[in-house]
Amino acid sequence: MGRTTLIAGCGRLGARIAALLQEAGGEVLGLRRDPRDLPAGITPVVADLSVPLTSPLPPADALVITLPPTGFPDLRVPLQHLRDAVPALPVRTVLISSTRVLEGYDASRPLTEADPPRPRSERARRLVEGEEAARELFDAVVLRAAGIYGPGRDRLIRAVREQRPVDLDRRTNRIHEQDLARAVVALLGATDPPRLLHAVDAAPAPLGEVVGHIAAQLDLPVPPRALPDPGAGTVLDGTALHRLLGHLEVPDHRAGYAAILAGESA
Question: Can you tell me the distance from the alpha carbon of 56 to that of 81, in angstroms, rounded to the nearest whole number?
Fold first, then answer.
């Protein structure tokens, strides 16, 4: 890609994105409060976006924003501090948001990018505000990720091993971390990217089906049903993402969790 990308909030996902950008010949700047865990090759940028920055950030051609809503009471604040500190507006900005903004829908039909947000929780409302602010301040492309999983993201695997109660009937969507990183890189490089994209794999499924597959791989019982278990959840249509990427490296939870567990065994 041959250009400089600043990743604001460069954690686990940011490192995945950085690796793909570096493979394509790009330079990556990783903005974090504490840069000690940044992988080699990422240029550290030490900054705390909860307060105004006292000096400008290094120039970058592109910007990826991965700020967690739980870290800020108002996402507009760090985004404004970021905008004030960049020396020039990047050519392309991608904000990674969450499909949680659609939590107010049910699972009666697949949801697409044409469906407006319907937040219920305070966290979802903050995400919607963050999307709006990123568009206003950076003309950002918004990428809403479903349940992110991959090596090291083992919440459901631990739930099976520990036999913790699970909402077995709840409809869920997910995306492997590697395909999410690929989506970010594709949006950064696209000539005319979609302004909004849902990052979901090809197989939305009840949570019971997902943990059932994990349990079978581990030769363990399916975790007990959480009570009450009202079901619900949402089903998202990933057609637009699949059109952008051409294919998913991890098409569904079966392939994804089988690879994770195989990697653990190795």
Answer: 10
